[in-house]
Amino acid sequence: MRFHSGLATAAVLAISVLVLPGCQSSRPAPAPVAPQPKTVQPTPTPVPEETVTEPTPVPSVASGEELPADLKELNRRGYLKDVFFATDSYDLTPQARDTLAADAAWLGKHPTIKILIEGHCDERNTRQYNLALGQRRADAVRDYLIFLGVPASRIRTISYGEERPFALGHNEAAWRLNRRAHFVITAR
């Protein structure tokens, strides 16, 4: 029996050697990888700037109009019109833009004129807040005039906040007139 059991073990081992290699899982050979064509990234094209259609001033041409020699008289005649603002705002309204287009056209006809833009506020809010808001109003007007072609070297700005009211009073009618940007001609 011992011989039988040794023979049986040898037979099991022989069969194992012959059968087990056939039980291995055969993995399929990886498919050959085809070379990928190179993709060329397109060069980004610059996006054109948005065209803003705003009124354009008349080109700068010396005017035949005779202006007063005295700056005080020049300012009294009111060649440049003030622009007005909503409460707590420095945004230019369509009406303000139209007024500024006319002001820019006049300045274009008189290229030696230099101006000061005063930013004003009504009496509501704190002094510091109104000084800052008045400056933002003056700057908004200056920036729009520059956009319309008036050279920046001809424009200065200042804020008076609530310190120099145009209209005295403590009601909406007075406040509306005090929320403004006012022009002062400083040189001919």
Q: In terms of topology, how is this protein built?
A:
Layout: H1 2-23, H2 71-76, E1 83-84, H3 94-109, E2 114-120, H4 127-147, E3 155-161, H5 172-178, E4 180-187
Parallel strand pairs: 2-3
Antiparallel strand pairs: 1-4, 2-4
Name of the CATH class of the domain at 71-187: Alpha Beta
Secondary structure tally: strands: 4
Report the β-strand fraction as a percent range: 5-15%
In DSSP terms (H or I, runs of 4 or more residues), the helix count works out at: 5
Specify the CATH homologous superfamily of the domain at 71-187: OmpA-like domain
**Outline, from the CA principal axes?**
globular
Assigned CATH architecture of the domain at 71-187: 2-Layer Sandwich
| CATH domain topology of the domain at 71-187 | 60s Ribosomal Protein L30, Chain: A
Rounded to the nearest angstrom, the radius of gyration is 42 Å
Q: What is the N-to-C order of secondary-structure elements (H for helix, E for strand)?
A: HHEHEHEHE
**What composes the largest sheet?**
4 strands, mixed
Low-confidence stretches: 50-61
Tell me the structural class.
Answer: alpha+beta
**Strand arrangement across the biggest beta sheet:** 1-4-2-3
Written description of the protein model:
With 188 residues, the protein is α+β, with helices and mostly antiparallel strands. It has a domain at 71-187: 60s Ribosomal Protein L30, Chain: A (2-Layer Sandwich), CATH 3.30.1330.60. The chain is 38% helix and 13% strand. The chain is built from five helices and four strands; from the N terminus they run ααβαβαβαβ. Strands 1-4-2-3 form a four-stranded mixed β-sheet. The longest helix is centred in the N-terminal third of the chain and has 22 residues, at 2-23. The radius of gyration is 42 Å and the shape is globular.
